[in-house]
């Protein structure tokens, strides 16, 4: 057995190592500075405390973006030096964010060990490559992102760090081959266990959904399907699940080979960046010659996001979570006993609220970022939740889950078409959405992102928007001067959240202008960018009249 020693290395703090909405995200060249990653990792170990680190089993993997392999080797050596007992690595360093959450919660090692945390290496939907983004975040023993109490502590530690620990004499571990390697350190044995990236996750999905009925749909000649992984880590799961387990054709997979630079693209599953899929689904600017598939979906780099499309039809994420919640009990075996409650992030449209009211379900509105859902789920208060930013999930894990969302939609389609795969016309994605609007009304919704603007200017703009809130008369005068056909602002505030489980308070979570007719304008600064600032503007308007739910949303929202 190879022996290693523990070497303390002197270091000095870096500015700006504050974890954002979902971990620390910076340009690769920033992460590559000597000690930059090391400082953050040691600050995390120190924030967790020795009792959570010494002897622990931790997962390290990510979406496979550029610099991941180097980072994994560094974290392995630092974990060894900090007396971690074993590190689990997905083969080739690949694990989707939802798969990491599943591995923490479900996987049992050869020796009966269980993981209590994970470093996830991803910058999610941000581009990858030597000149693009890298990211790292820590997830806890429940499989969810570290809460603010921990991320604040990590940040404090990064400001005062003086040394970190790293193993000397520990060689790079081959992470391309499944198997266990053991080393001997001053405090005993240290193992690195490289395992199959997909099997735990596939097993979990099979315990949630009725794979047989989805397979019947996917292999029916009437149904056509397309999945775009945008060269992110979802590709490693898509082939296993959609093709090998569910019988979809290999040709239904687009960009399903994970790449370090996502093929040069922006791995963000929306109408702007998932160009190839959008064109295939008949939503592109130029008319496609082939008949588009019935169903299409895409994922982001780390496979926690999803975009759901029907033939020439886009499902907004806010509608998607509402529709999944409305149909879950009938269509998905995991929920057959009923939903414990539902939740959405504040800027997400109120489509889910209407379903909750209708079905008499507990309902929660939380700040942006998945970490806020975890407490509710751990307390048994929430089963299904979602964000407008293409994130949907449930309490099967503590992260949003891109492939889960696709399986949920396929389950709903399979359920609606269960007696219908013969001759009749298929119930389509568009039919399901229209039926939903007819029952619950429609929330017209759109989001504008003003990316990479000057940080100082963005802060000033936000401060101005807060200041304006002190006089609604003034606000309404400004609005009426621009558009007389808009209802009055009756309420304006900054969203503040008190966690109903632990009582913690999160302030300044978005600036809201609420109109008399239920419309909303929300402004937020993004917490996931790596440079400058991004201002997000969310626009929403509710329409209950079934004769008016079929409008084009850009047109319906134009006055707002
Ligand atoms: C964005 C989204 C937010 C999401 C977060 C992480 O954050 O708005 O809803 O939870 O990204 O998603 P922000 O602060 O930039 O608005 V991911 O797929 O990066 O893990
Ligand atoms: Co993501």
UniProtKB/TrEMBL annotation:
Keywords: Carbohydrate metabolism, Glucose metabolism, Isomerase, Magnesium, Metal-binding, Phosphoprotein
Domain Alpha-D-phosphohexomutase alpha/beta/alpha: 17-164, 200-309, 318-419
Enzyme class: isomerase
GO BP of this protein: glucose metabolic process
Domain of life: Eukaryota
InterPro entries (UniProt xref): A-D-PHexomutase_a/b/a-I, A-D-PHexomutase_a/b/a-I/II/III, A-D-PHexomutase_a/b/a-II, A-D-PHexomutase_a/b/a-III, A-D-PHexomutase_C_sf, A-D-PHexomutase_CS, Alpha-D-phosphohexomutase_SF, PGM
Entry keyword Metal-binding: yes
EC number: 5.4.2.2
Cofactor(s) needed by this chain: Mg(2+)
UniProt xrefs under Pfam families: PGM1_C_vert_fung (PF24947), PGM_PMM_I (PF02878), PGM_PMM_II (PF02879), PGM_PMM_III (PF02880)
Reactions listed under catalytic activity: alpha-D-glucose 1-phosphate = alpha-D-glucose 6-phosphate; alpha-D-glucose 1,6-bisphosphate + L-seryl-[protein] = O-phospho-L-seryl-[protein] + alpha-D-glucose 6-phosphate; O-phospho-L-seryl-[protein] + alpha-D-glucose 1-phosphate = alpha-D-glucose 1,6-bisphosphate + L-seryl-[protein]
GO molecular function, a single term: phosphoglucomutase activity
Function: Catalyzes the reversible isomerization of alpha-D-glucose 1-phosphate to alpha-D-glucose 6-phosphate. The mechanism proceeds via the intermediate compound alpha-D-glucose 1,6-bisphosphate. This enzyme participates in both the breakdown and synthesis of glucose.
Subunit and partners: Monomer.
Family statement drawn from the similarity comment of this UniProt entry: Belongs to the phosphohexose mutase family.
Identification of the protein by name: phosphoglucomutase (alpha-D-glucose-1,6-bisphosphate-dependent)
Gene source species: Forsythia ovata
């Amino acid at each position: 057995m190879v022996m290693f020693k523990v070497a303390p290395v002197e270091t000095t703090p870096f500015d700006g190592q504050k974890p954002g909405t979902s971990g620390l995200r910076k340009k690769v060249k920033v992460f590559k500075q000597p000690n930059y990653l090391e400082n953050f990792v040691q600050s995390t170990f120190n924030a967790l405390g020795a009792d959570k680190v010494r002897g622990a089993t931790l997962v390290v993997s990510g979406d496979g973006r550029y610099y991941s392999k180097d980072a994994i080797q560094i974290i392995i050596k630092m974990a060894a030096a900090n007396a971690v007992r074993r590190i689990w690595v997905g083969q080739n360093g690949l694990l989707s964010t939802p798969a990491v959450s599943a591995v923490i919660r479900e996987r049992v090692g050869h020796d009966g060990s269980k993981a209590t945390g994970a470093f996830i290496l991803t910058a999610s939907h941000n581009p990858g490559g030597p000149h693009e983004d890298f990211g790292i975040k820590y997830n806890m023993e429940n499989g969810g992102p570290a809460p603010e109490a921990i991320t604040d502590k990590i940040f404090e530690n990064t400001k005062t760090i003086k040394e970190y620990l790293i193993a000397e004499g520990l060689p790079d571990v081959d992470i391309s081959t499944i198997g266990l390697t053991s080393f001997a350190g001053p405090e005993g044995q240290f193992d690195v266990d490289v395992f199959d990236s997909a099997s735990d996750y596939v097993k979990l999905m099979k315990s949630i959904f009725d794979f047989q009925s989805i397979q019947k749909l996917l292999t029916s000649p009437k149904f056509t399907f397309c999945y775009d992984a945008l060269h992110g880590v979802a590709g490693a799961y898509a082939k296993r699940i959609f093709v090998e387990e569910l019988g979809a054709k290999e040709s239904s997979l687009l960009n399903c080979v994970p790449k370090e630079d996502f093929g040069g693209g922006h791995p963000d599953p929306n109408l702007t960046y998932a160009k190839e899929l959008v064109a295939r689904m008949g939503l592109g600017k130029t008319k496609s010659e082939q008949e588009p598939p019935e169903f299409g979906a895409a994922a982001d780099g780390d496979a926690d996001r999803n975009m759901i499309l029907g033939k020439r039809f886009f499902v907004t994420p806010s509608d998607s979570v509402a529709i999944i919640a409305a149909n879950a009990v009938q269509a998905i075996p995991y929920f057959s006993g009923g939903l414990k409650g539902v939740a959405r992030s504040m800027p997400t449209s109120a489509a889910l609220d209407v379903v909750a009211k209708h079905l008499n379900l507990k309902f929660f509105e939380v700040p942006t970022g998945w970490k806020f859902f975890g407490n509710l789920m751990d307390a048994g208060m929430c089963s299904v939740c979602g964000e407008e930013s293409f994130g949907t999930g449930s309490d099967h894990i503590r992260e949003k889950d891109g492939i889960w969302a696709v399986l949920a939609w396929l389950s709903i389609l399979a359920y609606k078409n269960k007696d219908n795969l013969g001759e009749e016309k298929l119930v389509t994605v568009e039919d399901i959405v229209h039926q939903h609007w007819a029952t619950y009304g429609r929330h017209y919704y759109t989001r504008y992102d003003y990316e990479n603007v000057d940080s100082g200017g963005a802060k000033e703009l936000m401060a101005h928007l807060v200041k304006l809130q002190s006089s609604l008369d003034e606000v309404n005068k400004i609005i009426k001067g621009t558009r007389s056909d808009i209802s009055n602002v009756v309420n304006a505030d900054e969203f503040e959240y008190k966690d109903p489980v632990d009582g913690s308070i999160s302030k300044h979570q978005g600036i809201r202008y609420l109109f008399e007719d239920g419309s909303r304008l929300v402004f937020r600064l993004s917490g996931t960018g790596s440079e400058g600032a991004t201002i997000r503007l969310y626009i929403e308007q509710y329409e209950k009249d079934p004769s008016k739910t079929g409008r084009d949303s850009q047109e319906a929202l134009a006055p707002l």
